[in-house]
Amino acid sequence: MTGAQETIDRILARGGSDEDVLQAVVDALHDRVDHYSWVGIYLVDGDELVLGPWKGPEETEHVRIPVGQGVCGAAAATGETEIVDDVNADPRYLACFASTRSEIVVPIAHEGAVVGEIDIDSDQPAAFGDDDRAMLEGVATMVSAAAAGSGMGL
Ligand code: SME
Prior knowledge:
By secondary structure, this protein is α+β, with helices and mostly antiparallel strands. 35% of the residues lie in helices and 27% in strands. Strands 3-2-1-6-5-4 form a 6-stranded antiparallel β-sheet, with helices on both faces. A hairpin with a 2-residue loop joins strand 1 (38-45) and strand 2. Helix 1 packs antiparallel against helix 2 (18-32) and helix 1 (4-14) packs parallel to helix 4. The chain binds methionine sulfoxide (SME). Methionine sulfoxide binds at residues 40, 60, 62, 65, 70-72, 93-94, 96, 103, 119, 121.
């Protein structure tokens, strides 16, 4: 997403609740990047991830994921970004949508702890590269206070 930092800056400057901020960030990512088919933010709740704001064609059945399970749970457990080029070849993958081919999960850390993560599914294989990782890790840093304070799942 070109101008990601400016877009997120504008969303943060507008204010509103932490939930509103996170939803606006999800909407911007979904609407402005063609290969982002489904975008969601999970928030840490004890030893589980609970789904917060999301945007995409369908809801997911995975509204709670134990830390350590799935690609989402792996990223939360390690605090490291996960990129899966072919979800059907990754045994950790928890299927949500038949159309998904690849996935990126970017942890959101606040004061040294993982408080949530950005999860994006793409209908294109190997859709996520270094540009996506760098941009989304920047977004994760910018929204960390909102994720920590959103009260959704914390
Ligand atoms: N695929 C994820 C589950 C979340 S859905 O993609 C929205 C996983 O393997 O953890």
